[in-house]
Amino acid sequence: MNVLITAGGTVAPIDDVRVISNRSTGRFAASLAEAWLRRGASVTYLATTPRTFGPLEIPALRVDGPVDPLELRRRTMQAVTDAWHFDGRLQRVDLKEGTVSDYATQLERLCRSRPWDVVMLAAAVSDFEPVPFAGKIDSEPDEIVITLKRTPKVIRQVRDWIGDSAHLIGFKLTSGADDAALESIARQACRTNRADVTIANDQSSVLAGKHRGALVRPEGPAEWFEAGDDLGDRVVRRLAALREEP
Fold first, then answer.
1. How many domains does the chain divide into?
2. For residue 121, what is the domain's CATH number?
3. Which of 46-60, 65-79, 145-159, 207-221 has the highest mean pLDDT?
4. Which of 14, 107, 174, 216 has the most CB atoms less than 10 A away?
5. Distances from the Cα of 183 to the Cα of 1, 141, 216, angstroms
C-alpha cells in the first residue's frame, strides 16, 4: 500500500525577514505515518519545513508528565526497532520555502508521480498570505498595516491529481466549535473537497493536550476518537477498515 501524508504548517512571508505561520508541529501526522508503516505500508511524508516532526522522531519524547525511566527506555528501544523495520519504506520530502505555492507545487508533483492508495492532507495550509513587501519593513513605527489576500484551496485540486481510486483524507481544525458544529463543518468539507473522510478537531482540545477528534464522512454519523498515545494507531486502523468496505 502506498500512502502520502502531508505535515506541518506553511509560512507566509511578510517581508524578506518575517513570516506569518501557525501552530502546527506535525506531531499527529508523524504518529499517523508511523501507524501506516507498522501496517506494512510505504509512506511518503511531505513536511512543510525541516523543523516539522517526522516519523520515528517523537516516540521516546511523546510524554505527558513524569515518566518512569524504564518506560522511557522501552519507548526508545521501540523507536529503534521500528526504524529497523521501516527501512526503505519511508521517504521524507521537505519543502524548500514552505509557502502555499511551494506546497501546492510539490504536492501535485508527488500526487501525479505514482498511484496512491491513501492520501492524507494533515498539513496546516495558510488561508491568507500578506501582499509581498520588498526588503524589510522598518521597525520604528508604532503600528503597521499588513494586507492579506486569500490563497488557493489546494485540497480542492487534489482529487483531480490522484484520481477516484485513492482514498482522500482531509483535516479540519476549528476554534470554539461544539461537537455538532464541528461535525457539520467537517461534513461540508468532505463534500467541497471531494474527500472520503475529514478528520476534525477543535483548537481547545489541542491546547489542552487532549487532541480529541472526529472522523467524518460525507454521509453517516461521526466517529469520535478520544486522546491517547495510540490515537494515530486507532485512526489508521479505522481508515484501513473503511478502505476495505465495498
1. 1
2. 3.40.50.10300
3. 145-159
4. 216
5. 29, 44, 7
Which helix (H) or strand (E) segment is 81 a member of? helix 69-86
Site of grid cell 491517547: 228
CA atoms within 13 A on the CB side of 136: 5
Burial of 65 (0-12, 13-18, 19+ CB in 10 A): exposed
Count CB atoms within 10 A of the CB of residue 224: 14
User: What residue numbers bound the domain in which 125 lies?
Assistant: 2-244
Most confident among 43-57, 73-87, 110-124, 215-229 (mean pLDDT): 110-124
The C-alpha atoms of residue 47 and residue 62 are separated, in whole angstroms, by 19
Asked if 204 contacts 212 with a C-beta cutoff of 8 angstroms, the reply is: no
